DNA sequence: ACCTACCTGTTT
DNA sequence: AAACAGGTAGGT
C-alpha cells in the first residue's frame, strides 16, 4: 500500500497531533506484528518526534519518569494494507486491529485518543528498539539498514540518482526504481507515474539511459512525490492518513491502473505488462 | 536477477 | 476457482 507520499502524510498528521503525548497503555492483539526483542514496556513513554526514512516511520519515544528508562525507537512499516491512524479512544470493533495505544495529552488531561495499527493482510511490522540502535546496524530492520537516498532530500540530484542506478545497469529501469537500496520510497504506483512524466519506457535497461534522461527522471520523481504529498497520498482501497481519511492523488494518476484506457496526453492505448514481477503501465507513444 | 512466501479480500 | 492487490525477506 503506502509508498513515500502516503507515509509522509501520516508522519505529518501524527507529528502535528501526538508529539508530546504519553502512552497510557498498549493493547497488543496480534503479538507477531510487534518485534520487541528487548521486551521494552512502552507504557509511560512520551512521543518525542516522528520521522521518516523511505517507507519507514521512525517514532522517537522519550523515557518515562521511571529512573533509568532510555529513549526508544518505534519503527513502523505498513507494507501493503497497513494503517496507522488516530481516533477517539472509545471506538472499538474495527477488524484487523493488531495494536492500539491509548494516549494521554501533553497537558496531563484525560486519555481521549488512541493510535491504531490496523492491517488486513498482516504484512506490516512494528519494531521497538533502544534509541542508540540507530547507530547499531545489526539491530535495525534489514530494509532500513540498506535503504538508498531520500528522493525529497535537497541533496537528491541527477548525479546521485545516476550513481545509484549505476549499481543496477542490467535491469529494466522499472525494477531499479522499485529497489529500495537504489532509491528509498518509490513503489509500484509512483515508479510508473515518474517514468511516464519523464517519457521513459519502463523496460529500458538502466545502463542505456542517457544523462539527460536521468536528469528528467530525477525531476519527475521529485515532482510526482511532491504532488502526491500535497494530495495526501493515493487511496486505491486501503490507505488512509493519520486521521483515517482517504487521499486524493488517485484522481491524478496518468498511467498506474489505466492499462487499456486512452493516454490522457495523446490518446494512445495505455500498455500493461508484468515487469520486475509487478504489473506495469505505460504509454507506448509518450514514453520511449 | 529472478522466484516464492507471507496474508486477506475483491474481482474476473 | 483463480487471479490479483500499494511490499519486502529469503532462497536460488
Characterization of the model:
- 22% of the residues lie in helices and 24% in strands.
- It is α+β, with helices and mostly antiparallel strands and 288 residues long.
- The strands form 3 sheets. A 5-stranded mixed beta sheet has the order 2-9-5-4-3, with helices on one face. The protein has a 4-stranded antiparallel beta sheet with strand order 1-7-8-6, with helices on one face. It has a two-stranded antiparallel sheet with strand order 10-11.
- The longest helix has 20 residues.
- It binds a DNA duplex (12 and 12 nucleotides) through helix 5.
Topology:
Layout: H1 4-18, E1 22-28, E2 34-35, E3 46-53, E4 56-62, E5 72-77, E6 82-88, E7 97-104, E8 111-119, E9 125-130, H2 142-145, H3 158-165, H4 173-178, H5 188-198, H6 211-230, E10 271-275, E11 278-282
Parallel strand pairs: 2-9
Antiparallel strand pairs: 1-7, 3-4, 4-5, 5-9, 6-8, 7-8, 10-11
Helix pairs in contact: 1-6, 3-6, 5-6
This protein binds a DNA duplex (12 and 12 nucleotides) through residues 1-3, 6, 55, 77-81, 96, 119-124, 142-143, 168, 170-171, 175, 178, 180, 187-190, 234, 236-239, 256, 276-279.
| DSSP strand tally | 11
Low-confidence stretches: none
Contiguous helical run count: 6
Relative strand content:
15-25%
Biggest pleated-sheet summary: 5 strands, mixed
N-end to C-end Cα span: 28 Å
- Overall spatial form: elongated
- What order do the helices and strands follow? HEEEEEEEEEHHHHHEE
What average pLDDT do the residues reach? 94
Rg over alpha carbons: 20 Å
Helical proportion?
10-25%
Based on secondary structure, the structural category is alpha+beta
Strand arrangement across the biggest beta sheet: 2-9-5-4-3
Amino acid at each position: 500500500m503506502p509508498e513515500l507520499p502516503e507515509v509522509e502524510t501520516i508522519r505529518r498528521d501524527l507529528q502535528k497531533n501526538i508529539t508530546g503525548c504519553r502512552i497510557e497503555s498498549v493493547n497488543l492483539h496480534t503479538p507477531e506484528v510487534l518485534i520487541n526483542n528487548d521486551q521494552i514496556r512502552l507504557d509511560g513513554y512520551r512521543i518525542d518526534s516522528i520521522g521518516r526514512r523511505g517507507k519507514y516511520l521512525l517514532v522517537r519515544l522519550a523515557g518515562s519518569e521511571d529512573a533509568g528508562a532510555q529513549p526508544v525507537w518505534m519503527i513502523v512499516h505498513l507494507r501493503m494494507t497497513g494503517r496507522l491512524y488516530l481516533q477517539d479512544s472509545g471506538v472499538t470493533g474495527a477488524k484487523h486491529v493488531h495494536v492500539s495505544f491509548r494516549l494521554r495529552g501533553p497537558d496531563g488531561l484525560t486519555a481521549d485518543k488512541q493510535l491504531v495499527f490496523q492491517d488486513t493482510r498482516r504484512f506490516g511490522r512494528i519494531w521497538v528498539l533502544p534509541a542508540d540502535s540507530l547507530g547499531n546496524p545489526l539491530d535495525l530492520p534489514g530494509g532500513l539498514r540498506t535503504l538508498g537516498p531520500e528522493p525529497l532530500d535537497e541533496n537528491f540530484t541527477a548525479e546521485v540518482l545516476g550513481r545509484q542506478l549505476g549499481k543496477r545497469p542490467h535491469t529494466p529501469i522499472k525494477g531499479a526504481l522499485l529497489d529500495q537500496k537504489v532509491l528509498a520510497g518509490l513503489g509500484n504506483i509512483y515508479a510508473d507515474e515518474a517514468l511516464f512524466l519523464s517519457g521513459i519506457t519502463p523496460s529500458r535497461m538502466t545502463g542505456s539511459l542517457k544523462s539527460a534522461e536521468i536528469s528528467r527522471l530525477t525531476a519527475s520523481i521529485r515532482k510526482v512525490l511532491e504532488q502526491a504529498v500535497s494530495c495526501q497520498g493515493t487511496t486505491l482501497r486501503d490507505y488512509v492518513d493519520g486521521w483515517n481519511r482517504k487521499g486524493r492523488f488517485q484522481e491524478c494518476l496518468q498511467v498506474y491502473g489505466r492499462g487499456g484506457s486512452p493516454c490522457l496526453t495523446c490518446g494512445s492505448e495505455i500498455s500493461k505488462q508484468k515487469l520486475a514481477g509487478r504489473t506495469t503501465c505505460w504509454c507506448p507513444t509518450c514514453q520511449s
